[in-house]
Amino acid sequence: GGYDEVDNLASPLSIIMLGLLFMLAISSWELPNPVQGKITQYTKGILTFAITILCYRLGDALSFYIHKRTTENKISFNLALLPVARVTFQVLVVIVGILFTLQSLQFDIKGLLTGVGIGGLGFALASQDTIKNFFGSLVVLTDKPFDVGDFIVSGAIEGKVEEIGFRSTRIHTTQGSTMYVPNSKLADAHVNNYGVRQYKRFSTTIAIAYNTPIVLIEAFVEGLRKIVEHHPTTSKGKYAIYLHDLRSSVLEIIFQVQFNSTDRGKELQSRHELLLGIMRLAAVLGVRLAFPTQTLHMETFPEKNPFTPEYTTDPTALKQRLQAFLVSKNQDSRSNKKGKEGKI
Fold it and tell me: Pick from 64, 90, 92: which is nearest to 79 by CA?
């Protein structure tokens, strides 16, 4: 909480205040110059180290304050960038603070910097993957191809982003597992972000038997459009339902709709309801949902019944069946709503 951050700042501040008071006090003491110089030197070293701790903890306090202000006042700031900025700031503070502390204690830091430079080159060569992931994190956080809470697909990776870290991104997959993906991989990969969509699109084809009468096809397509128009989560007027293609063994009806929801669970539920509605409509109208087959036509024998079903082609009867289907569907939806309200 906020009190913890204030307490963390209080202890180095008190050390700094005591150190400054001590330096003022020893200036009035009549001590030998070598002794007073050593005491002053060590006091400066302690003060520099305390200032380093103060700046380090100030990074945590600023991170907490920015996060709080952003969430409460809805300020435009990329919160996913906050942990990386905090860690980078604190690493720089530690490095600079250690160097200034050693310098205040009159250590020769030139030789140290030379050794650090050579060692840093070797360290950089040995940690190329870590550096790649770091810059991959910067690319991911600045370009923002996705944000925390988005559902993304990248190659074999498919799931919801839970956290964008300093080295990797944590993704909750559709299989229920947690996957940690290096940011360098995501920075170089094609990412399909479903989280930024304002709607979700569902497209499929419905195959029906080749010998379905034209009047029955028209009634079936009309019923499919009514199903979409009566569904609560579909975009009205933004669908495409037509007889699309004449395949070698089936007739194909294209069925494209949009859901007014970006939630994965609601999308799956809406698909479930539409597909069941399609199957019920086909059963009511007597439309055969086909699968790829080959039909061999032979001379009809008197003692054998033909395999082709008897279709209803009377327009009046088809309208009555379609109207009865829509009435029963509306009654089912009302009963489902009442059942949900009763449970609540």
Answer: 64
